[in-house]
Amino acid sequence: MAGNTFGRIFKLTSFGESHGRGVGGILEGVKPGLELDMDFIQQELDRRRPGQSKITTPRDEKDRVEFLSGVMDGKATGTPLAFAIWNKDQKSNDYDNLKDLYRPSHADYTYDAKYGIRDHRGGGRSSARETIARVVAGAIAKLMLKETGVDITAFVSQVGELRMEEVPEDLSAIESTPVRCPDTKMAERMIDYIDKIRQEKDSVGGVVSCVIRNAPAGLGDPVFEKLHAVLGQAMLSINAVKGFEYGLGFKASSMKGSQHNDEFYTEAGKVKTRTNRSGGVQGGISNGEEILFRVAFKPVATILKDQNTVDKSGNEVVMKARGRHDPCVVPRAVPIVEAMAAMVIVDAWLMNKTYQ
Amino acid sequence: MAGNTFGRIFKLTSFGESHGRGVGGILEGVKPGLELDMDFIQQELDRRRPGQSKITTPRDEKDRVEFLSGVMDGKATGTPLAFAIWNKDQKSNDYDNLKDLYRPSHADYTYDAKYGIRDHRGGGRSSARETIARVVAGAIAKLMLKETGVDITAFVSQVGELRMEEVPEDLSAIESTPVRCPDTKMAERMIDYIDKIRQEKDSVGGVVSCVIRNAPAGLGDPVFEKLHAVLGQAMLSINAVKGFEYGLGFKASSMKGSQHNDEFYTEAGKVKTRTNRSGGVQGGISNGEEILFRVAFKPVATILKDQNTVDKSGNEVVMKARGRHDPCVVPRAVPIVEAMAAMVIVDAWLMNKTYQ
Amino acid sequence: MAGNTFGRIFKLTSFGESHGRGVGGILEGVKPGLELDMDFIQQELDRRRPGQSKITTPRDEKDRVEFLSGVMDGKATGTPLAFAIWNKDQKSNDYDNLKDLYRPSHADYTYDAKYGIRDHRGGGRSSARETIARVVAGAIAKLMLKETGVDITAFVSQVGELRMEEVPEDLSAIESTPVRCPDTKMAERMIDYIDKIRQEKDSVGGVVSCVIRNAPAGLGDPVFEKLHAVLGQAMLSINAVKGFEYGLGFKASSMKGSQHNDEFYTEAGKVKTRTNRSGGVQGGISNGEEILFRVAFKPVATILKDQNTVDKSGNEVVMKARGRHDPCVVPRAVPIVEAMAAMVIVDAWLMNKTYQ
Amino acid sequence: MAGNTFGRIFKLTSFGESHGRGVGGILEGVKPGLELDMDFIQQELDRRRPGQSKITTPRDEKDRVEFLSGVMDGKATGTPLAFAIWNKDQKSNDYDNLKDLYRPSHADYTYDAKYGIRDHRGGGRSSARETIARVVAGAIAKLMLKETGVDITAFVSQVGELRMEEVPEDLSAIESTPVRCPDTKMAERMIDYIDKIRQEKDSVGGVVSCVIRNAPAGLGDPVFEKLHAVLGQAMLSINAVKGFEYGLGFKASSMKGSQHNDEFYTEAGKVKTRTNRSGGVQGGISNGEEILFRVAFKPVATILKDQNTVDKSGNEVVMKARGRHDPCVVPRAVPIVEAMAAMVIVDAWLMNKTYQ
Known about the structure:
Chain A is α+β, with helices and mostly antiparallel strands and about 350 residues long. Chain A contains seven helices and 19 strands. The mean pLDDT of chain A is about 95.
């Protein structure tokens, strides 16, 4: 079916389900000759992996990517780069009880409504396991950006009601805490809160913020593929995302033009803005300032509480709580947000080459 | 350049600038034989038109669409439907003073940075006049939806700090006020506020909410073209949009799963949800409930105040306020939001036909 | 409907019918700042125009292109370049007699079968008038190639049984005869033959050959967008084309490998082939030699003889000969073949920029 | 890089090289619920396999497809169908002698020129092994066509100078000979000829003809995706193809309109043509008659004779003959031609569903 390709030139076509043979993709647009730094790619995958601390699910998926084509002697050859991450933890019959159930706020019912058939094992294609392919493609996008100096950093800026109001200048502490919040005090509070939510057998949502530094002016293709519109689609396509905003976002809606406009000035011959309420994008094209956006995640639908729902035949049933559960997936979403952002930036960059 | 096509099957390729010959597009995917109700299309265009009341700009653009191909005897023939809306009000030398200026928070600088050349007259391609083509395509999308019963209604839910918290059941009053807010008391307050902003020579942002009723379950194409992701891209591609959320959106980020999940039940053999926090979309596919989303608009960058900025050569200058100005474009954005939504729904609908 | 866009980066979306408002298109991928040499574009259009001599139809269409967007001060701005050529000679009621007839070997019946509705006036979208948009886009592609030195030259190599066996080195005489054959003696014979066919009230087919000189090695994108595969699609999409071959084409099928292989050698440090049976493309990628291909055109279906056919209701009827008629369109196809080739080359060139 | 996706709705993105991990693809557009008849898919793969007789290469690749996603309980689920055929016979160092050589009329030089890097092992991506992915996708396309009655049959109509002039009504004998020619006497002659060519250590070209029966009127999308134009691209993208023609093809170029036109008549209320010189396609849309086309293959470039060529550094060298060799690949191309045709027909069919 449609919908499994992202990008125009740097283009990922993804496949895979939670409990089939694996997940993976075919990536086009990788620069021929690019060194595929496998340690870096694995490191990015590890960042997404659950089981890293008490606040995440204890599964240890040990995801390892295998490249199936497009590589020779560790370098991209310019032909399509296919890769797979094989599923290991495939106890399909764990899911037999869910076969005919529509779990609340999951995609069980909608997949059935759309396709008339559904892989119920672990959510099938709707499982967040699908995002592994994005992380691999994003890691390669980051490798392509290496020589450009563009830096893409995402972090958790909100968990439940706990939120950071500003993007700090110093983002170095992000990876030092399992919650991936650069404000270490806030990080402690978030961790405690998530632990409490786990004990409540509940889940909680949050926000991932992302900063892109050193991106040149000129990225983005109006009118339908404005930089922020494509970033928006990219982020909204991630599991559990409910909203996207860039710059001041929804806050801008209550502001006046005189408060929101960014004055231009010049510094060392370069056009800059004194403020960056626009979030680094004006008219859908990057302006050389920091690109800033925020992504809202709902609380994951899987909770360890009984819930009322219906089965495939329409019978109302009580779904018993069981199994594993990740009370807050937002920290694990950080590398996925970065991966999608990296793909968008590389694709816009490559498109710009065709104008020269 | 890239970026001027939207949709996969119901597909608009758009063209045009504020001060060229006109704006328009080529539309593919229109059902052969469809009656092109010209009165309806004109009515949609009129809704977008400025000059309708004291709260909008006094220009009277009298936009009329001319179909250039794909129509015979008032019916679509199945060949590409090209159309144009000719520019009338083209005093290009009005803009000579802006030729070398980069207006704050406009796209002047970024277009120059990207293309190395820029049509400075009235913003060129970055003018909101471009959205006329979207309204025409959206009107035709609505005509295609007519027989399906799907109803798409957008309205202003926030202007500055004035906001409606809930989507009312009764939306019938929307078009009765120039501010397009269904709560008539709130509408009065908004109008007064916009008038005040006009007197301040300032501008103000706002939010457009949209409700899609009677859409079937099954629309949307995971994983990258999830219904809400494509709606998000569509909305974010509209001029001045800074954010998009569906269902509870950013609010969901501070909630628990037990508060956010929508329980399923059955009614007359149909699977329904007791609440609709998901906003009608689960796993990227419509679930048959109302589809709800919100779009954040920044205050327009044009204000009647002097502003500091730079010119093309990097000199810092004061930009003198002059000309016409629309203090709040959000009411005029309502038909544009509906148009983009209609295009997304029709395209998803047509894609589904290929699965049967 | 689908099918009206050609190209990936240098991308034409075309519209228009024989008897609607006009034909035209939207072109993306034009280099910002490119001088749009209007004299050159008009000259290319004139080459396609009928009425240039006794061997073509006497209509004088005086096609003039009007640019609707994407141009300022004669230069491309990088935004979509929309253009139209307005229809002038629109005596629609000339065609009333054809309204319900299915003309033999025209597209009347198939358009009806596909769309359930048909613009019968002059063939509607299936009219060769559609190719005007291709010539405009091709002219702009040629302007983009100017600085590269790539030279694309097509010519008539066969009319009926009269054929040239070899591609001559000297192609300078092509435009000096109305039949566009570089061998002036053969040209005379072709002209006489076409005149004879005209007197017989019949039509005749032919072949257009094309030589692309100075193209670099490296153009073309295996495996599905091999250079010759895309050239093939491009040529086969032109009205009345029945076949495409490159290099030795169908002749290669009866040869042995030892006869067909092109030996490599080096000259001044450049890898070259001693023979060019491959036609300048190996493995779907240009090798730096001359790119050679041939395009087979059937005799046009319109002849001034009575023919048996059926009408829309299935009644068998005799279609009376009447109207104007072009006994051999192959000479007029020469600029169209060049235009499509230029578009393919530019698009492959731009794609290559993304690998660097 | 670009160029690895074929189709719009029924869409194959392919990957893989001769000596990497394997070849495969991701297929979208497969009807959810379709039974994936594995025996049939394997049978199609076996038809492509070398080593079936004395006239083909003795390798026994035993290609088996493994589905990686999109299947549950033997049925397509509507999510992307990824598959791989693992490479077994990977003696990479067999190819060390070719590492720096540019084999005449292979893609070695052009891949190097394009990508600056090349997988020299067995031709890498330019190996005909890539076509395995097409055969799998084509087999699934055939399964989708099963209920429609459309029948796609290709066969060898020419080997070297030995050619069949007409398409016989009875095609039942095709698979009974290793050369896949329905005329059993001609088949014997072809086999003897190919054996002679093998002894000469040479190779020989040929032609594959294809007949599509029971296709409905209405398939194909003018103007750029005319049915025959897409078939042409599909066929030309197959390794070693040099030409494509449909209907009378190049022969039509020497005919008169009065000889070439197909008269319409009605039979049992159905519009038909008395002759089928058009090859079942008029104006780029199928007309309900048999679709007929021919595909020209050059002799394969690998021969067991010494050849002059150059190496990467530009030195002229003699390439010593060695290794395995298939004197005539045309019989093995038969299932590939059918596969590509099936993909084109299914894709056109699915596109038509969106017009209804």
